[in-house]
């Protein structure tokens, strides 16, 4: 994960580690290397510039404190700022309500259905909940089959209506079913499209209005870099979602989406998914992610 970014940052710091003192010149050089590394990791130029300007300012401010070496000082500053860029503190995940309704949205192929299974598994095994997963994709019968298989693997119930073409009605019926069978979390997997379109947004917005979700999670493939950030903007404008799920972090992803979605849409990343197995889901901790990036 983010291997290239990590290596590039390491090189940037290495050049500084040999220096006895931090100076305007070595700060400027390091900051330039960091900016290039971020841009190559698919961070938008403006954000990369703002980020490194802040690093520079902090380093200048602290250079008189000769307590620690220039290399250590810079690593610390970058780590703090990366953490901040990714949201600072970890975000809360709201499962209040009986049942708590969680709406899952995103483009087709982003990993929505896989995540729906993983989240149900997480809530069942880690939070002691009894979830009901709902296949509200009225266009692709295969999506129902896929969620049925996942639900079987993790041992949770699934709700689907193969003949019903009204996604809002399916969602409401699922909630009724959850109440009748003592399920305390309902996770609704919605239909995805290959690109953001009006009909899709209207459908998810209608489900949102009908079910009053505790959480609306926007699922996005982290491999898509800047596109992920732009898609997040489009979904957030329409849905005002409560959190982001970054998928496919096990792949060869460069990092831009993870680093800048929070900054761009001002919504926290809540989970990261890194594999096809149902257990490969993690709560997102900005500080830990920053630490991993910096090795
Ligand atoms: P949906 O169309 O948004 O519901 O996406 P799916 O859940 O069907 O996922 C699309 C493809 O990505 C499937 O082949 C999944 O197995 C795969 N996938 C989903 N999440 C991950 C992940 O975190 N890592 C990897 N490597 N593959 C994933």
Give the percentage of residues in beta strands.
5-15%
Mean pLDDT across all amino acids = 93
Separation of the first and last Cα atoms: 11 Å
Number of distinct beta strands: 8
Helical region count? 11
Helicity, in percent?
Answer: 40-55%
Q: What small molecules accompany the polymer chains?
A: guanosine-5'-diphosphate
Which ranges are low-confidence, i.e. pLDDT below 50, for 5 or more consecutive residues? none
| Shape designation | elongated
Radius of gyration: 21 Å
Provide the structure class.
Answer: alpha/beta
The H/E string reads: HHHHEHEHEHEHEHEHEEH
For the sheet with most strands, the description reads:
8 strands, mixed
Strands of the widest sheet, in order across it, are 3-2-4-1-5-6-7-8
Family: Belongs to the GTP-binding SRP family. SRP54 subfamily.
Subcellular location: Cytoplasm
GO molecular function: 7S RNA binding; GTP binding; GTPase activity
Organism: Deminuibacter soli
State the gist of this model.
By secondary structure, the protein is of the alpha/beta class. 53% of the residues lie in helices and 14% in strands.
Written description of the protein model:
Part of the signal recognition particle protein translocation system, which is composed of SRP and FtsY. GO terms for molecular function: 7S RNA binding; GTP binding; GTPase activity. With 295 residues, the chain is an alpha/beta fold. Helix content is 53%, strand content 14%. Strands 3-2-4-1-5-6-7-8 form an eight-stranded mixed beta sheet, sandwiched between helices. Helix 1 packs antiparallel against helix 4, helix 2 runs antiparallel to helix 3 and helix 3 crosses helix 4. The protein is elongated and about 70 Å long. The termini are close together. The relative contact order is 0.17. The model has no long low-confidence stretch (mean pLDDT 93). Bound molecules: guanosine-5'-diphosphate. The site of guanosine-5'-diphosphate (GDP) has 18 residues, from helix 5.
């Amino acid at each position: 994960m983010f291997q290239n970014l990590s290596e590039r940052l390491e090189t940037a710091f290495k050049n500084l580690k040999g220096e006895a003192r931090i100076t305007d010149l070595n700060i400027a050089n390091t900051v330039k290397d960091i900016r290039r590394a971020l841009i190559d990791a698919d961070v938008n130029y403006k954000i990369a510039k703002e980020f490194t300007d802040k690093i520079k300012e902090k380093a200048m401010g602290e250079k008189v404190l000769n307590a620690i070496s220039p290399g250590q000082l810079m690593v610390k500053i970058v780590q703090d700022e990366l953490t901040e860029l990714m949201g600072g503190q970890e975000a809360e995940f709201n499962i209040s309500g009986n049942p708590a309704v969680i709406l899952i949205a995103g483009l087709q192929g982003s990993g929505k259905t896989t995540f729906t299974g993983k989240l149900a598994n997480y809530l069942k095994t880690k939070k002691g909940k009894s979830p009901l997963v709902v296949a509200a994709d009225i266009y692709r019968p295969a999506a129902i089959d896929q969620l049925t298989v996942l639900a079987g693997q993790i041992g949770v119930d699934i709700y689907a209506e193969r003949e019903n073409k009204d996604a809002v009605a399916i969602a409401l019926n699922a909630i009724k079913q959850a109440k009748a069978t003592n399920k305390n979390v309902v996770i609704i997997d919605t239909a995805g499209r290959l690109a953001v379109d009006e009909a899709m947004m209207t459908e998810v917005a209608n489900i949102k209005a009908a079910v009053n979700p505790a959480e609306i999670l926007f699922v996005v493939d982290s491999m898509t870099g800047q596109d992920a950030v732009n898609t997040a903007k489009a979904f957030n404008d329409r849905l005002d979602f409560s959190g982001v799920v970054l998928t496919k972090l096990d792949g060869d992803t460069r990092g831009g989406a993870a680093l800048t979605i929070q900054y761009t849409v001002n919504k926290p990343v809540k989970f990261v998914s890194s594999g096809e197995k149902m257990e490969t889901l993690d709560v997102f901790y900005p500080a830990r992610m920053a630490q991993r990036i910096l090795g």
